[in-house]
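Re: [help] complex structure
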Amino acid sequence: MAESTAGRRAAFLRMLPASATLLALAVALGVAANLVRPAATRLPWASDWSRHIETQAYRAGVPVLFLPGVRERAGNPDWLICDARTPEQYAAGHLPGAWNLPLEEVDARLGALAARLTLQSELLVYCGGADCTDALELALKLRQLGFERVTLYPGGYAEWVEYGGEVRTGDEP
Amino acid sequence: MSRARIILVWVARLAVAGMFIGACLAKIAAPESFALAVHRYRLLPDLLVNAVALLLPWLELLCGVAVLAGPPRWRAAGALWIALMLVVFTGAISLNILRGIEASCGCFSTRADAAASDGWNLARNATLLGLTLVILWDALRRDQSAAAGEPAP
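Output below.
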C-alpha cells in the first residue's frame, strides 16, 4: 500500500513539468496569435476597464441587464423601457415599447408618463451603445428622483439592432 | 483493465477534449468579446482581464489536445489543468448567479445574445469535472506502470 502511494506521488510529480510546459506553450501561442492579428483587432495586454460603462454602473450601484434579459423584458407590461437618446435618434428607430426620455427633458416627459409609473416601477434604460453614457446618467437621475428599480442595458440600441431586434420608428413607443 | 473501464475513460477523454477544444475556438477568434465576458465576472483586477482573455483559450486548446491524443503523462497534465479551470469556472459562475447577474458564462460563445448562466452550467461543469478526474486517475496509473516497466493496467 505504501509502495503504491509512493508510486502515485512519483507519477504526480513526473506530471508537473508537462503541466508547466502546457502553460508555457499556451503563453507562447497567445502572444504569437495576438501579434499576427491585424492591428485593428489586436487586443492590448491591459486596458482601462474602470472607464467601461458596466464598471461605472457597477460602482454607481446600477444593475445591468444584457441582451437575452432585455429580450425577455421587452413587451413585459411590468417593465417600462426608456430611451435616453435624442428625439431625432428615437424617431429614427427605437426598441418596441420604449419611451423617449432624453436627459434634458426628463422632468417634463416624466409628467406625461405619471399615470403609468410609480416609484417602484421597473425601469430599463438604454442609449446608443456601450460607448454612450446618457443611459447611465439617466439611470442616476431617475434614482435621484426616487425611482428605486432602474436597470441599465449597456449594449443599447446598436447591439439590439446588430442582433436582429425588432425596431419601431416614429415618435410613439 | 476491464472493457467497461476502457470505454468509460475513452468517453471521458472524448467528452472533455471535445468540450474544451470546442469552447476555445470562439474565444480565440474574438478575444475582445471574451475579455468583456471575463470582465463581467468582476473577479480579476483590470490589469489581468485582457491577459487572461488572450491566454486562457490557448491553454484550453492545448489541454484538450493533450487529453485526447497525448501519452499518459501529458494526458494527466492536461487533465490537471482542466480540473483546475473547471473548479475556477464553476466558482465564478456560482458567484455570478448568487449576485443575480444575468450574464452569459462566456464558455462557448462570446456573442451578446448568448444565454445567461444558470444551474445547467453548474451541472455540466460538475459532470465534466468528474470525467476529468477519471482521465487524471487513469493517466497517472498508466504513467506509474510505464515508469515501473509493467504492462499498462
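Chain A has seven helices and four strands.
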